Amino acid sequence: MSSPKITKIEVHRFSYELADLEKREHGTAYALGKSLTSAAYAIAIFTDIGVKGEFVGGGPVDYAGVGVFADSLIGQNPLERERIYSRVKQAMRQHGEMGLAQVDIALWDMAGKYHNAPIHQLLGGYRKTLPTYPATVHATEGDELKSTDEMADFAEQCKELGYPAFKIHGWENGEPNREAAAILKVRDRVGPEMDLMSDPYNALQTFGDALKVGRACDEADYFWYEDPLADGGLSQFAHRKLRELLKTPLLMTEHVRGLEARVDFMVNGATDFVRGDVQTLGITGTMKLAHAAEGLGLDIEMHSPGPAQRQCMAAIRNANYYELSGSRPQGPNANHVPVYTDGYSDQLDDAEDGHFPVPQGPGLGVEYDWEMIERNSLGKVVYE
C-alpha cells in the first residue's frame, strides 16, 4: 500500500459570539444580556486517502508562521509527524517555531482518525479523567474579582463545586501587598485540604515584590508560585535565586519558546514544575518535554484548556492538574470557542467531582462545526 500524502492545507478565520460578556477597559467582563463577538482560527489538513486532520486554536501570529512552510508540506506523508516536526522546527528556528504546533496537532488528529483511536491511546494512555483547577480570569480594578474578598468568594465557590485546587491570577498593577493579602485570604477561606496556586501574570515589578508575594505563598502553603516577575518569565538566574529564598515550588516556562529552553530551566534549577503548552509546542513537542521532565523526576503542567491538552495529559503520568483557565464566578469561559457539535465544553460547571473527561473518539476526539465556521468566515487561505 502506498503512503498517504498531504494534498491541501486550509487555514480559516471565523467569528463567534459569547453571551453575557462584553469588552471593558480592563478586558472581557461578565455582563448579563450582552454579547461579545470574537475571532478564532481553524486548520484543516487534507490527504489523498480522504482522512482529514483538524484543529481549532492558535492566533494570527501562529497562522502567519504556517504560511512560511505550508507549501513544503504538500506531497509529504502526514503520518511522518516526527520528520515533519523536525523539518518545520528547523525552518522556523528564527521565528519562534510559530505555526509548528497548529500543524502538528492537526497531523495527530489525522493519525488518530487513520488508526481509529484517540490520540492518548496512540501516545500510550494513562488516565481517563483529569483532576482540574479553575484558574481565574485576570483580576480587575472595576469589573470582576476586584477585591481580595471576591477572590476568596470564588475560591470557596469552586471548592463547593468539587474542585480539588484553585489558582489566582492577580491584578494588572502588580501591587504586592494586595497579591499577598489575596493569597492568605483564599487559604483562610478554603482551609488546608485544597491545593492553591498563585500566578501574578508577570505583573510584579521588582525581585523584592516577587519575594514578598512568594513569602505569603510560603505562609499559606501554596502548591506552586508561577510567573511572578515582569521579565516575562525568561530569566533563569532570577528564578533560581527566588527558589533559593522560598519554600513554595516555582512553575515556570509558559512564556519560554521551544523545547530546549524549557529543559534548560529544569536542569539549571530555575523551576520546579515545568509548563507544557500544546499550542506552542504541539503534541510532539509537549510529549518530548513531559518525558524530559519525567527523566529528571519532575512534573509537567499543561497550560490552558482544550481537547489537545486533554489528550496529552491523559497519556502523561507526571502531571497533576488540568488547567481551566479563564474561569469566572459568573458567565462563560471566554477561552472556550463554541465550535463543537458533540457537546465538548470547558465551562466551570462541566466538571464532575472536580474532574474533566478525556474525549474517546478518534484523533482529538471532538467534532467541529464546519458549517458554522464557513457561515461566519472572515477569510480562508488555501495551500495546495
Describe it.
It contains twelve helices and 13 strands. With 384 residues, it is an alpha/beta fold. The protein has two domains: 6-117 and 364-383, Enolase-like, N-terminal domain (Enolase-like, domain 1, 2-Layer Sandwich); 122-357, TIM Barrel (Alpha-Beta Barrel), CATH 3.20.20.120. The radius of gyration is 21 Å and the shape is globular. Helices cover 35% and strands 24% of the residues. The strands form three sheets. Strands 5-6-7-8-9-10 form a six-stranded parallel sheet. It has a four-stranded antiparallel sheet with strand order 3-2-1-13.
Estimated radius of gyration: 21 Å
What does the largest sheet look like? 6 strands, parallel
CATH homologous group name of the largest domain:
Enolase-like C-terminal domain
CATH topology of the largest domain, what is it called? TIM Barrel
Low-confidence residue ranges: none
Q: SSE order in H/E notation? A: EEEHHHHEHEHEHEHEHEHEHEEHE
Count, helices? 12
Counted beta strands: 13
Q: Tell the overall outline.
A: globular
Q: Decide which structural class fits the backbone.
A: alpha/beta
**CATH architecture type of the largest domain:** Alpha-Beta Barrel
Topology:
Elements: E1 6-24, E2 27-47, E3 53-56, H1 60-73, H2 81-91, H3 100-115, H4 119-122, E4 129-136, H5 148-160, E5 165-169, H6 176-190, E6 195-199, H7 207-219, E7 224-226, H8 236-245, E8 250-252, H9 259-267, E9 273-276, H10 278-295, E10 300-302, H11 307-313, E11 322-327, E12 355-357, H12 370-375, E13 377-383
Parallel strand pairs: 4-11, 5-6, 6-7, 7-8, 8-9, 9-10
Antiparallel strand pairs: 1-2, 1-13, 2-3, 4-12
Helix pairs in contact: 1-3, 2-3, 3-10, 5-6, 6-7, 9-10
